[in-house]
From TrEMBL:
Protein name: GTPase Der
Sites where the protein binds GTP 1: 9-16, 56-60, 119-122
Source organism per UniProt: Chryseobacterium sediminis
Job of this protein: GTPase that plays an essential role in the late steps of ribosome biogenesis.
Portion of the full sequence shown: 1 to 163 of 436
Complex and partners: Associates with the 50S ribosomal subunit.
Record domain EngA-type G: where: 3-163
Length: 163
């Protein structure tokens, strides 16, 4: 069975930037199951020779959290159903929000491995502000910069090891 990694998080945290980085030099898959896959992007990637599928969730990227109840909940639900591993992305620029708490609450209902990623840590000076995310009650998070790719290797090492 193939491994499927879904990137979940509220609008603007950087999901599509990470998705595109993981798919570098590869073609995105245009999925034929319209309706089910509308607003979701699928692609193939690999790390250290291990192949996996990546899902970029978030056709709800309208720039606000207001549509949370309908769209984000739906996207989280689909991700949990489809994925074998979940990347839950937040970002240090905007910090921890009520929506992040809500998404994490929904994700924790699943038994899928969840990798908590704090994006937009573009330099060492963002490491200290990122510690606010421990307020979620978590033991570990990964700090990355999807823009530069820094930190992405460490999380991929752990994800493929857990497949
Ligand atoms: P999405 O809505 O979660 O898919 O987020 P996007 O990938 O579309 O990114 C939202 C904005 O954040 C864009 O302007 C990106 O260029 C920017 N962005 C994404 N990743 C990073 C990062 O690591 N650092 C910085 N500074 N900006 C980022
Ligand atoms: Mg996006």
């Amino acid at each position: 069975m193939s491994n499927i990694v879904a990137i979940v998080g509220r609008p603007n945290v950087g999901k599509s930037t990470l998705f595109n980085r993981l798919l570098e030099r590869r073609e995105a898959i245009v999925d034929s199951i319209a309706g089910v896959t509308r607003d979701r992007h699928y692609g193939k990637s690999d790390w250290n020779g291990v192949d996996f599928t990546v899902i970029d969730t978030g056709g709800y990227d309208v720039g606000t959290d207001d549509i949370f109840e309908e769209e984000i909940r739906k996207q989280v639900q689909l991700a949990v159903e489809e994925a074998t591993s979940i990347i839950f992305m937040m970002n240090v620029e905007e910090g921890l929000t009520d929506t992040d708490y809500e998404i994490y609450r929904l994700l924790r209902r699943s038994n899928k491995p969840i990798y908590i990623v704090i994006n937009k840590v573009d330099s060492a000076k963002e490491e200290l502000p990122a510690t606010e995310f421990y307020q979620l009650g978590i033991d570990k998070y990964y700090t990355i910069s999807s823009a530069t790719g820094s930190g992405t290797g460490e999380i991929l090492d752990d994800i493929v090891r857990d497949f």
